[in-house]
Specification:
Elements lengths: L2 H18 L5 H8 L3 H25 L5 H21 L3 H28 L6 H30 L1 H22 L10 H5 L5 H22 L1 H9 L6 H25 L1 H22 L3 H29 L4 H31 L3 H29 L6
């Protein structure tokens, strides 16, 4: 695997830390900027929405530009807005920096995914994708807990400074390792025409449902552990780290398997995930069952993910600039709707076990979409040839 692919994973680690670290910083931000905790929570929503909406737009903006320059521009903008966020005393300015950071992150993700698969032969694309996505899993294991510790001992601003500082080595490494070649420059209208592809749209929907299932339960893992499983609050960081460790294990193994057996991995992974979320919902009251399932579900979710991402990149091969943006958008649509639906279930009085049931239902929807996508794909082959 080229060093440049690991460099992209390093940059994604810093950006993934920024995306998810606010969950442990909200009380400090609310107190520091004199706003309510729900208002501080909007910072997380603003980032997710900015990622979902901005990814296709930023990928088209970077269309035809040298990849190294595009990556450096997005990463430097990401660093700059974190510095502004670290020093501002205005909630409105901080909110604006989260949107700007999301746009820069979305653009970086879109170009990075396209660059990673371009740097390796076709039979290693899923593995390259898994290295880039692996940056997010390392952020869950190390970056997010570290940000929470910094926020607790040095204030929430220190976490923003840390993200900016961690991103600096990635700037230097990208400047040295990423080729300054250009992505194939199809016209914007030509790239947008890929959205008329039913298999692509169905695969994007499947990705969104899949990610929604993952982030629904992950978001509410702490109250599930303390109110249902009966673990002490002190064990919650270890449980989150266990999920992240499972994610890292899955993304490491899944990338290798997906290159050789993509369809088998996708179907088996999604089916097992649906069963796993159901099992977690049923057995969440037992630590002996719930704790191992947290690791297993993290491993399956991020082990299957690279195959789904690679499938999108394949189906959108005629839109090389837009492909990475569409993948990023689907990922973040799922990361938005999953926690939202889980919150609705809790708010409806269904308890802290309910997000696991929502995850199971979302995975059932993803499997249904996958079955429909297979029917659409096989339909032309089933059409009889006209009689000569």
């Amino acid at each position: 695997m080229p060093l440049a692919v690991y460099v992209l994973g390093l940059a994604v680690f810093a950006q993934g830390t920024s995306e998810f670290m606010l969950s442990g910083l909200l009380p400090g931000i609310a107190a520091g900027l004199h706003v309510s905790v729900p208002a501080a929570g909007l910072l997380t929503s603003a980032f997710a929405i900015g990622m979902a909406v901005g990814a296709p737009a930023m990928s088209l903006l970077a269309r035809g530009r040298p990849r190294r320059r595009a990556l450096l521009a997005f990463l430097c903008a990401f660093i700059a807005v974190h510095v502004i966020g670290a020093v501002t005393t205005s909630y409105a300015v901080l909110l604006a920096t989260r949107v700007a950071a999301a746009l820069a992150n979305a653009g970086f993700w879109a170009v990075a995914l396209a660059a990673a698969v371009a740097l390796v032969p076709p039979d290693a694309r899923a593995r390259a994708t898994s290295v880039v996505v692996g940056g997010v899993t390392v952020a869950c294991v190390a970056g997010v807990p570290a940000g929470a510790l910094l926020g607790e001992h040095l204030g929430w601003r220190s976490a923003f400074w840390a993200v900016a500082l961690v991103s600096l080595p990635a700037v230097a490494a990208i400047a040295r390792t990423i080729p300054d070649d250009r992505s194939p420059a199809a016209g914007a209208a030509s790239e947008l025409r890929v959205l008329a592809s039913r298999p692509l749209l169905l695969t994007l929907a499947m990705n969104a449902l899949f990610q929604g299932a993952t982030f629904c339960t992950f978001t509410y893992l702490a109250p599930l552990a303390t109110h249902v499983t009966g673990l002490r609050t002190a064990w919650v960081p270890a449980l989150l780290a266990l999920f992240g460790l499972g994610s890292f294990t899955g993304v490491t193994l899944g990338g290798r398997i997906a290159d050789a057996h993509p369809r088998t991995l996708t179907i088996a992974g999604m089916t097992t995930l649906a069963a796993g979320w159901t099992a977690l919902a049923l057995t969440a009251g037992s630590p002996a069952a719930a704790v191992p399932l947290v690791f297993v579900q993290g491993m399956l979710a991020f082990g299957t993910g690279p195959a789904l991402i690679t499938r999108v990149l394949h189906l959108a091969a005629d839109a090389p600039a837009l492909a990475g943006g569409l993948t990023t958008a689907a990922f973040n649509v799922g990361a938005t709707i999953g926690p939202w639906l889980g919150g609705l279930a809790i708010g409806a009085g269904l308890g802290y076990r309910s997000p696991a049931w929502v995850s199971a239902l979302l995975m059932a929807g993803a499997l249904t979409t996958a079955a429909f996508a297979l029917r659409v794909r096989s339909a032309p082959a089933a059409t009889p040839s006209p009689t000569r």
